[in-house]
């Protein structure tokens, strides 16, 4: 059972996350020959100041 954990900046609308989850699920089911019910997608939202790149916090 594939588990896909996606971390992104907070604030993306539900419609965007729905589309991402749908596309990720379709791709994994196609490649792994699994039913869609076997694929789990979870979103973790992080505030920009808590997301560091090259030692620097993100900006809104």
Describe the model.
The chain is an alpha+beta fold and 60 residues long. It has a single domain (3-57), classed as Macrophage Migration Inhibitory Factor, CATH 3.30.429.10. It is 32% helix and 30% strand. It is built from one helix and four strands; from the N terminus they run E-H-E-E-E. It has one helix at residues 14-32; strands spanning 3-9, 40-46, 52-53, 56-57. The chain has a two-stranded parallel sheet. A two-stranded antiparallel sheet has the order 3-4. A hairpin with a 2-residue loop joins strand 3 and strand 4. It is elongated, with a radius of gyration of 14 Å.
Write the layout of secondary structure elements.
Layout: E1 3-9, H1 14-32, E2 40-46, E3 52-53, E4 56-57
Parallel strand pairs: 1-2
Antiparallel strand pairs: 3-4
Fill in the keyword field for this structure.
single chain, 60 residues, alpha+beta, Macrophage Migration Inhibitory Factor, two-stranded parallel ribbon, 1 helix, elongated
């Amino acid at each position: 059972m594939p588990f896909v954990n996606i971390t992104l900046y907070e604030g993306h609308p539900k419609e965007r996350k729905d589309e991402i989850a749908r596309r990720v699920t379709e791709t994994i089911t196609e490649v792994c020959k699994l039913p869609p019910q076997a694929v789990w997608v979870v979103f973790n939202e992080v505030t920009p100041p808590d997301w560091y790149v090259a030692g620097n916090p993100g900006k809104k």
